[in-house]
Amino acid sequence: MTYLTNAFSLQMLNGISEAKVSVRLLSADQACIRLQGNFVSAVGHEATANFLSELFGVYVPFNRFTLKLSDNDTAIVAQYTKGRLNGELVDFKPDDFRFYEVKILERRI
After folding, report:
1. What are phi and psi of 55, to 5 degrees?
2. pTM, whole model, 2 decimals?
């Protein structure tokens, strides 16, 4: 499964005691291509979800939940780089974000 999220946390590794994780920097266009087809939104900030919907041209719902990645899952992370968001409305620009592809390559539980 592919997930779109606005943050990455080690808690997403789902009880793994040891793992090899791949993190790849993507352009906004590359992130958009990776999201073509089926993905689940794990974007926990409403204004960010709205902005990403506009940027990618697909509906990205606000959907805050605890994401746990499993084998073969991919997280596309839209990381806001301009500080901390506390629920406020922000006039986002594409350069305010860095995009990453995160995959679990190998893991031990």
Report:
1. -65, -45
2. 0.89
